[in-house]
What does this fold into?
Amino acid sequence: MKPPVRIVVTGGAGQIAYSLVFRIASGELFGSDQPIILHLLELPSIIKHLNGVGMELNDCAYPLLYDIIITDDVKTAFTDVEYAFLVGAAPRTKDMQRADLIKANAEIFKVQGKALNNYANSKVKVVVVGNPANTNAYIAMRCAPDLAPEQFTAMTRLDHNRLLHQLANKLQVNVAEINNVIIWGNHSASQYTDIRYATTNVDQNWFINDLMPCVQQRGTSIIEIRGKSSAASAAYAAISHMRDWVKGTDQWVSMAIPSDGSYGIKEGLIYSYPVTIDNGIISIVQGLEIDEFSRKQLDKNQQELELEREAVLTNLTGF
It folds into this structure.
């Protein structure tokens, strides 16, 4: 057995975390030879529920789960962690504007970014799941000046997986036969679902009028039907995101990462690109043609993320 690694999951009593932590403890993230120590963070008002999650984890008697740290203290939660799943975020309530949501989350991710900077392992890998994920990742990154920007990512893997299924279903093939789909930009209804490098065997009207809106609005559709937001699918996507980051992949996957200027996107924005990963190094797939329609979609996402960034800079004190 390898030495145990420390993994923090914030929002530990929430729906996504409840689907996530048991899969991590079972070995689905890093394999059957990697012991783990789980750090679970929650608000003081919900810590009782998190203790119940801890009891269930113990009752599973996972051989790989060496310890569980349940806390409402960020220092305890982030000390020495090597992998961070930032799942907990302020939810959007009725009549709340996106700018209000950003402001509410800014304070949360400012605190967590500083905690990562001050207490986490210097090589910590961070994936932000809590929405608005791109901008929350940007906040955490900016508040962790001693960590490298490339240590911060936001999850668009769920959108990527949704696109894979919808396209495979349309073509009547298994998802394993579909490669090179892309989610560009923001994890929002503006995201650009690009299938130009996966297939040419679909009608453009279907792509624009059916496929794009379906993927962009999939989360809303699930809430309307299920009565709750996506949880198991989000947890699976988060695990896939982190596992590929650690173990590598030659397949194109979608990740929101700090832009290096590729494809004309301003540097520093947390922007989703097609990437491959080798030895922990995330590389943007280069040389893809950006036609007029795609250019408009990429620019629209950049503008949205710039507006979100400005909302953060305007409203977040001490940033």
Notes: The radius of gyration is 19 Å.
